[in-house]
Each structure stands twice: as structure tokens, then as C-alpha cells.
Amino acid sequence: MQKSFEVLGSARESKARRGRLTTARGIIDTPAFMPVGTQGSVKGVSPRELRELDAQIILGNTYHLFVRPGLDVIKHFGGLHKFMNWDGPILTDSGGYQIFSLSKLRKITEDGVEFQNHIDGARAFISPEIAIETQAALGGDIVMALDECIPYPSEYDYAAQSAEMTTRWAKRCKEANVQRSTSNAQRPTSETDSINSQLSTLNQLLFGIVQGGTFGDLRKQSAQAIVELDFDGYAIGGVSVGEPEEEMMRAVESAEPFLPKDKPRYAMGLGTPPQLLEMIARGMDMFDCVLPTRLARNGTAFTDTGTLNLKNAEFARDKRPIEENCVCSACRGFSRGYIRHLVKAEEILGLRLITLHNLHFYLELMNRARAEIERGTIDQFRKAFVANYKTRDETMIE
Amino acid sequence: MQKSFEVLGSARESKARRGRLTTARGIIDTPAFMPVGTQGSVKGVSPRELRELDAQIILGNTYHLFVRPGLDVIKHFGGLHKFMNWDGPILTDSGGYQIFSLSKLRKITEDGVEFQNHIDGARAFISPEIAIETQAALGGDIVMALDECIPYPSEYDYAAQSAEMTTRWAKRCKEANVQRSTSNAQRPTSETDSINSQLSTLNQLLFGIVQGGTFGDLRKQSAQAIVELDFDGYAIGGVSVGEPEEEMMRAVESAEPFLPKDKPRYAMGLGTPPQLLEMIARGMDMFDCVLPTRLARNGTAFTDTGTLNLKNAEFARDKRPIEENCVCSACRGFSRGYIRHLVKAEEILGLRLITLHNLHFYLELMNRARAEIERGTIDQFRKAFVANYKTRDETMIE
Q1: A62 in helix, strand or coil?
Q2: pLDDT at residue number B187
Q3: Rounded distance, CA B169 to CA B167, Å?
Q4: Phi, psi dihedral angles at A33 (to 5 degrees)
């Protein structure tokens, strides 16, 4: 089988890599940022705008789509790509994180998790097999194993047992995925199989997830165990869940050496702009984060020197764009003062413009990082960027 | 002075006309619909999308902009066009309607109106002269006289006195406007005059407004008095304020015969799709209405056969576009089922898509009406459209 991931180059002074991930629906240049399309839509942004932003891949949240509109509806429309009119790559998560963070009444057993969804309280059950089945129905190009996401802080013993169950679940996900691919390849195609769903199923990449809390040795063990199962890519889960930044870095640094170099590494749920560069330096290739979109809806914009809260009175008469020399559609057409007016007036265009700018900022940051890795200058770039960037409280992920 | 309005053709069986209105920033083909940009933004829509919809002119609400962000801010940014990044024609209203409908503590005298704005209660005062000055600062291409908008229902005597004061205010608006144009033409241009503001002031069209409540004779008298003052166009104000539709029609029919044929007629605040066609048949040329944008945000879409409430369960699995054969960007890319999902999930893209469809529907209806007038078939078109269109309760303007 052709390898889906290729390392094109590495940095000398850090573990940064330049890579290319090939999926059925397109190529992703890494390091890459994935805008989050939680409920089948990247909040406030149209598919056309995503293409204009040069987003190469987006993320879909399986839990949210499972709850609403439901799998039957999405299958009826021929899968998530068709439903939301995005024909580029999609990575779906397993649903695990939201089940552990959003739903009520969770009963976790070896089998899986019983829960009541947060919208209407209907009971449901997820298992490794169901997570694979569900993501196959959605038709994502990259799917994730079901993992147990432990809270922060967690006791050592609990983290250890949980990481071991995550490994057993990962094995079941792998087996369910192989079974599915095999049976799909064998059965005759029918009229109800859209070309799209056949495409997805045959070429779906499956990533395993490393857990272990903030404990270095558990992270190492989890990484080794997951790698032994041989996935198409490896994610670091259970980070950025409220732990101090140093512990987050340590969790990644403890796992990374045991992840194969020739597979993509995905730091789930990360991060702020400086954190992305720090993670790239630690050998991570892929990221997803709601910060650029969520903070936009709060009137906050990202720039090279930190965030701006555009609601502040200081911007009322500011004729400048959000960021000088930014080529996004917000900065090319609109002033800070106008955007501030829109935000204060609760006009939808305000949050649209900041969202477009923030996504452009994140995607362009990855673009710059990729270029700097190619040029061998990523470490200088990272140090200069981080030194220049003033982190303010509003970037704390809620 | 060159005439700004030209009648290109008329219907035989009704008073419908095909016209062309020339402003400093562009031509408006009439009959025309003006999307409403209440707070300096057509809700949910970007200027690029307005251009793609072929909107030729939009409306700005002077009252709202006066309250927030305030005139100083807009002047600082070089006028409303620059502030909102729309370089096409803008019609601004005088502020009268919102002062009478939204603000608190109104004291109406011959001089003007004292009020407290609805956002922070700050006291302010508007007069005919201030209304002209304010609209000059905004830089609209078409500005409106300040009128007194009476509630429905109103007693005959009150309606009569109010209409007479509206006429006296109209005269003061005209004089203030002439004075302003004269003094601007005479004074040397300075660096602080943007080319834009010079352009607006020299070429601003001023429309007078006919009042008179639901009383036919008062409407006639008001029309005659306003016309005698010689404005660039004539609006029918104080309609669609809660009165039955027949009374609205009668109000227009009572005034129209006394409006000159060679000036544009603007039915303020109208209407539903059938109402627009009925008004066109009664000799109206221009319309503004929040229905297409407001109902979109409630999940309601317009079609040739009436409105659809896309939140309804019946659309959950509907793969069709909002309207078959509609070429708007929503119908070309998205299904009813997906849009319904977005609306139920409170995703911004949902209301964006319905808004784009609804504005396209309204603007295309005007486009069709113009073509039918040119072909001499407008009356058949109107009858067929009205017969086919099922009005439902949700189209009642709140």
C-alpha cells in the first residue's frame, strides 16, 4: 500500500518537519491547521470562504453530528462532505472528547460509554466499533480511534488504567476498521453506495491516540502500545484540558520520541499561535483548535504581536486594518473602527470579518512555518515570533 | 440641471413604469428594491455579496447610525460609503420613522423632536435642518426630508395637522439643502473634504414624503403640497404601519395621481412580494423592506409559491434547494435539509444562506418585473404571480 505520509524535510535545531499527507480528497501540506466545523459548519464561514482561505482540511465533530442532525440524516444526504458542500479532506474525531466533556450521566465500562446527550438527554452508547461505524457513515477522510479522555488533574493510577483501556479500545477500532474495509471491498457495489462513500471507506486513514495524562512514563507507555498497533497517524490526546503549559509540553515531549517519524503527529485541540510553533518544534504536524473562530465571535482578533479585543474603545476611530500587511478579505476592505462598530452593534458581519481574519492568520502562520522549515530557518522564526507575541488572558481556552 | 430620473416605458393596463434613476455613484434601474443596511451593514451580508446579488442601491438608517457609532465617527472615516466599504448608491432616511417608533420620551414641536435614544437614553434633538445636516455628513446619494410619522390608527384631525407640519418641515429641509449645496459650491475645497463627500454633497438627491394617514383627501392634499415644493423624488410614508392592506393600497392610490410622472415614487417600508407587484402596478418605483433579511434570520425563505419555514421537520431530509431553478449561491450549493440543520443548530451559515436567497429572490423579482414592463406583459405577470403566491402569517411585518 502506498504510504499516505511523506516527510519532505526536517529542521536541524528542533524536531520540526515539513510533510505531505495524501488523502482520497486531496493533499495536506504539514504542518497544517484544521479549522473546526463542529456542527457541520465552520462557524460563520462558507465552504467558498474556506477554499479562498486555502484551508486544505477541516475537522468535523462526530458527537455533535451524531446528536444533531443524526447519522441517518447525514447518510441520507450521502455523507458529511455532500451535506455541507465541502469536497476537500475532512478529519472526524471519534466523539470521545465531547462525550466525556459535554454529555451527562456517563457510565464507562470495558465495552464502551453510556451517555445522555446534552441537547435533549436521549440515551446513547458508544463503543470502539460504533465509533468506527459512525465515522464511516460520516465519510471522513481521516478518522480517529475512540479513546477515554480523562479530566485534569487525574490520579496516577486512574491515568494508567485509562491509558491501558484506551489501548484496548484502539485495538478494537483497528480491527473494526479492517473488517469494514475488507467487507466493503468484497461486496458488490449497489446503487445506494454513492461514489463518495465508496471513496471514503476504501481510503479512510485511521489515527490512534496517545493518552497518559501528565505522567511522562504513562505517556511513553501509551505511545509505545498505540504504535505497536500500527495506525496511519498518531495523535496526542488529553492535552490542553486545563493543565499548565509546561505540563502540556512535557506530555508531548514524553510521547514524541516513541512515535514513528514517517507518520503524521496530530496534537489535538491545540493551540495559541506560539503554542503551535512550539509544538511544531517538538515534532507535531497537525492541529485543530476553536480559538480563531471562537475568539472572533467575542470580538478578538489575532496578530503577530498578540490579540486585539476589537470591542475596546481605543479602536473606535482606528482606520487601520486589523493587521497591517495582512491580505485577508477583512484587512483588505475594512477598518478596525468599522469592525468594532459591527461587533458593538451585534452585526453578524463583524464576527464574520474577524473569523475570516483569524483563520487566515492561523493558516498563514502554518504557511510561513512550512516555508521556514524548507529554508532551514524555522527555529529563528519561532523564537522571533514567540518573543514578539504578547499573550493576553483572553486566549485562555474556556 | 440634468434630470436624474427618466421613464423608459409604461404599462398599458396599469400604472407600472420602467425607469432609470441616475445618482453620483451609479444608476438604479426601476422598479428597484433596496436592501436595508440598518446599522451600516445589511444584516449578515458583505458588500461583496451585495455586488454579486446585483443590488444597485442600499438603504442606511440615519437614526441608528446617529445613535451608534455616531456622526463624528462616520465623518472621521470619510462618510458612510467608506465606513462600510460600499461604493454604490446609498439612500438614507431622515431618522424620523425610528424616532417615532423606537425612541423614548418624544416631545414634538414645530421646531422638531426631542427624544431619548433607545440604546442608552441619551437626549437628542432632530429638526428638518439637523436631518439634512446629518444626512449630508453620512454622504448618502439620496436623502429624505424629515416627516412626522403618525401611528395607526390616528384621528382625522391629528393626521391632518401632522401632514401640514410635515409639509412645513419639508420646505425647511429643501431650504436647508439648497443652502448647503450653495455654500459648498462657493467655499474653497479643503484637504478635509474627501472627494467622496464633495461628490455626495453636490449630487445628493432629496426626496419629499407624502403623509396623511389612511384618509384619501389628506393624502391628496399632502401630495399636492409636497409636489409644489419640487423634490427630486416623492415617497409615500406612513404605510405598512399596521393598517389593513386595502387601506394601504387606498393611501397610495389617493396620493399617486398627484405625483409627477417624471419623478421616481418610493413606497417606504414595503413590502411582501405580492405587495411589491401591486405597488408597481399603482405607479411606485422604489421599495425598501426588512422582510427578506429579517425573516431569513427566523429561518423563513421566500419562493414563488409563498414562504417556507425551513425549521419545519418536513424539510429535515429534503435534498432540494430552497427553490428549484433559483440561481442564488444558497440554492446552487446547499439543500433545504442542510440549511434546516444549520438553523436548528443556530449556525450562522444558516441565516447567511437564507438571507442570500431571500435578497436574490426580491432583487430578481424586480428584475423580472422590469423585463415584463419592457415586454408589455407586466399585468399578466402580476396576476399570475399573486395567484400563485400563498401568503402565510409569518410574513406579517412585526
Answers
A1: helix
A2: 64
A3: 5
A4: -110, 135
Tell how strand B205-210 and strand B58-60 pair up. Answer: unpaired
In this structure, what DSSP letter does residue A189 have? P
DSSP type of residue B393: G
Rounded Cα distance, B269 and B236, in Å: 9
- Quote the CA–CA distance of B240 and B291 in Å, as a whole number: 12
Q: Per the CB < 8 Å rule, is B44 touching A348?
A: yes
Name residue, grid cell 453510556. Answer: A114
What amino acid is encoded at B252 in this protein? V
Written as one string, the DSSP assignment of A58-88 is EEE-HHHHHHTT-HHHHHHTTSHHHHHT--S
**Which residues on adjacent β-strands are paired with residue B210?**
B236
d(CA B268, CA B93) in angstroms, rounded, equals 10
| pTM of the predicted protein model | 0.95
> In this structure, are residues A78 and A197 in contact, taking their beta carbons and an 8 Å threshold?
yes
The secondary element (H helix, E strand) that includes residue A394 is none
The three cell numbers of residue B287 are: 421599495
Among candidates B13, B7, B96, B34, which has minimal Cα distance to B383? B13
Chain A residue numbers touching B352 (CB-CB < 8 A): 44, 46, 348
Using CB atoms and an 8 Å cut-off, which of residues 332-371 of chain A contact chain B? 333-335, 337-338, 341-342, 344-345, 347-352
For the record, the C-alpha cell of B98 comes out as 425610528
What is the spatial distance between Cα A360 and Cα A368, in angstroms, rounded to a whole number? 12
Residue B148's identity, in one-letter code, is E
Bridge partners of B390? B306
Q: Per-residue confidence of chain B (398 residues) as pLDDT tens digits?
A: 568 999 999 999 999 999 999 999 999 999 999 999 999 999 999 999 999 999 999 999 999 999 999 999 999 999 999 999 999 999 999 998 888 888 776 789 999 999 998 888 999 999 999 999 999 999 999 999 999 999 999 999 999 999 999 999 999 999 999 988 787 777 665 555 555 555 555 579 999 999 999 999 999 999 999 999 999 999 999 999 999 999 999 999 999 999 999 999 999 999 999 999 999 999 999 999 999 999 999 999 999 999 999 999 999 999 999 999 999 999 999 999 999 999 999 999 999 999 999 999 999 999 999 999 999 999 999 999 999 999 765 544 44
Name the amino acid, one letter, at A18: R
The one catalytic residue among B157, B230, B288, B379: B288
The span from the CA of B223 to the CA of B265, in Å, is: 11
| pLDDT given for residue A181 in this prediction | 79
As to burial, measured by CB atoms within 10 angstroms (0-12 exposed, 13-18 middle, 19+ buried), residue A109 is exposed
* Cβ proximity of A316 and A337 under 8 Å: yes
Cell of B27: 444608476
Active-site annotation holder among A141, A232, A285, A288: A288
- The whole-angstrom separation of Cα B222 and Cα B169 is 12
What is the helix, strand, coil percentage profile of chain A, to 5?
45, 20, 35
Closest to B356 (Cα-Cα) out of B389, B383, B322, B329: B329
- B288 is annotated as an active-site residue: yes
Cβ contact B41–A342 (<8 Å): yes
Q: Which residue's entry shows cell 465500562?
A: A109
Q: Regarding beta strands B286-288 and A32-34, do their DSSP bridges make them parallel or antiparallel, or are they unpaired?
A: unpaired
Of A177-181, A391-395, B104-108, which range is least confident? A391-395
Q: Which three cell numbers stand for residue A386?
A: 514567540
B193 is catalytic: no
C-alpha cell at A189: 457495489
Structure-block grid coordinates of residue A279: 509544538
Residues 6+ apart with CB under 8 A from B144: B91, B92, B93, B94, B96, B131, B135, B206, B207, B209, B235
d(CA A6, CA A166): 27
